[in-house]
Amino acid sequence: MTYGTKWMGIVVVALGVTVWWSALCAQESRQRPTYADVAPIFKQHCLACHTGPQAADGLRLDAYAQIMAGTGKKAVVVPHKPAKSELLLRVRGQKKPRMPANGPPWLSDAQTAVIELWIQAGALEH
Ligand code: HEC
User: What is the per-residue pLDDT for 31?
Assistant: First the structure.
């Protein structure tokens, strides 16, 4: 290998690493939904019953703080623990009654995935 091709190789590898790294970072941020991503889902499919003083099970899903407060007796979202989050289990039908209680239709796979990723990433507000 001549001196020239060796340097060329190093440059190519460095470029490759840069592309790979930025792709990885882009993926990371896409996989980190915040409350802004899940709020419209709750608004459209859950607020009919989960808002105001008469909210079903005392669970209000119309504001971040309310969601994190859960039913008042217990949390329904456990940050970083989708499998322990009652809200996700209900949406998936792994706990009954399945939510939304007036379904089917249930939430789509894409909507369920956003909620799961949101919880997995820590159920962040921003
Ligand atoms: C048609 C009314 C209705 C809709 C719409 C609805 N719910 Fe519910 N929800 C209820 C009722 C009633 C209960 C109490 C049922 C029970 O657990 O016995 C409940 C209970 C729950 C619980 C359990 C709370 C606890 O006690 O641990 C969760 C979590 C929940 N709902 C989430 C949701 C989510 C998320 C949506 C939207 C995807 C939704 N619900 C839509 C009526 C509704």
Answer: 64
